[in-house]
Amino acid sequence: MNQKFIFTGREKMVSLIMAGFGGLLVAIAFLTAGDDAFAWNRVWTNILHNSVFFLGISFLSMFFYAAFTIAYAGWFVVFKRVMEALTAFIPIGGAFIIIVAIGAALGWNDIYYWMTEGLTDPDAENFDKIINSKKGFLNIPYFLASTIGFVVVWTFFANKFRSISKSEDTATPGSIETYIKLKKWTAAFLPIGASTSAFAIWYWIMSIEPHWYSTMFAWYATGSLMSCAIAAVMLSLYYLQSRGYYEEVLLTHYHDLGKFLFAFSIFWTYLWFSQYMLIWYANIGEETIHFQNQLKDFPILFYGMLVLNFALPLIILMRNTNKYRKGSIIFMCIIILFGHWLDFFLMIKQGVYYELGHAAHAAEGGGHHELGFMYGYNLPGLIEIGIMIGFLGLFIYSFFNALGKANLVPNNDPYLEESLHHQGGPLGPELDVHH
């Protein structure tokens, strides 16, 4: 029970090569962009996209961790150190988002159109009535202060949870003082995390299209990340078991995680449909344009996400035994992670695509300017995949590095015994819950 993860030299080398490859692509893309606004902002949007996506997985891992703890859940305790280690990427991803935010404020990128000078000046030629009405929320000082504040607060809570949890290993056997302390801190985090995450999504993603808004957008983006966080936990456990760790994790644990994976895939679909249906039914021009543009210029992503994030999880994970069968789960976790990565790609790229198109239109004196299909906007290209691999390498390195700094199983957690003998729901024909 005192087993520790050994971050091998090979794992370090592979993850750092992945990170270096992504960094090299970023440098090459910047150097070759020249004066092309689409090429230049393509790189910046890729940094924002991957930063938000992987930081979101870390944040939702922490949110699930807090929710399970405050709900007196015992089943996840045996592998809760995996969820703790997944939060190690928060300060890294947050640092990249802060760089993007500062770059936008200084004019280094054009991701946030509402930062354009003159939009809130009634005497300016480009005065925008809608953006002016939102300047109490959409203004640079609040944007930067909030972005930095979110990252600092989330990092603080992640480190606090980790510190308290690690102290369980040296606590007096049978003592519950450490657990009570952890429960109090997780209770404090939940309302703070829920509110700040919504504001972060509004600032970092929805404000890219400042004329459009959806009251369901924060839920929608969070639902996407919920599936990804569960998928990341399951893939981590399978990898660690292949290395000889976590023999204590049972099929019943995978079965319950598989139910969460299925549930949040359906939850995301419910939010996707509800957001689309309500906007379609209301038929308000400022809202319907969002989906009209998706259907017009992003049809592959629009329909492809429904296949990857809804149809496949529904068909495969609806079967009870597939919720813990290794092949089915690994396949679905990879599909879900990639599908929701595409989901965030569309959330971010669409607004910048049209914003730059309007700028090109204005530069031609209002003449016709056909944007057409572009890799990096309408669909991911090799640069997008390469930068994603780089961020994945950073994510894996931070995860493994954090995982090796404490016992894999929290020895003195009061719910450990319950987790070690977790029964869960009916598994199906298999009688032995062990692998």
Write a brief caption for the model.
It is built from 14 helices and no strands. With 435 residues, the chain is mainly alpha-helical.
Global outline: globular
Terminal CA distance reads: 18 Å
Q: Radius of gyration over alpha carbons?
A: 23 Å
Strand content: under 5%
Count every beta strand, where a strand is a DSSP E run of 2 or more residues: 0
Report the helical percentage: 55-70%
Largest sheet: none
Distinctive features:
single chain; about 425 residues; mainly alpha; about 70% helix; disordered C terminus
Structure characterization notes:
The protein contains 14 helices and no strands. It is an all-alpha fold. The longest helix has 38 residues, at 326-363. The protein has helices at 9-33, 37-70, 80-86, 90-105, 129-133, 140-167, 177-204, 217-242, 251-282, 285-297, 299-317, 326-363, 382-403, 416-420. Helices cover 69% and strands 0% of the residues. It is globular.
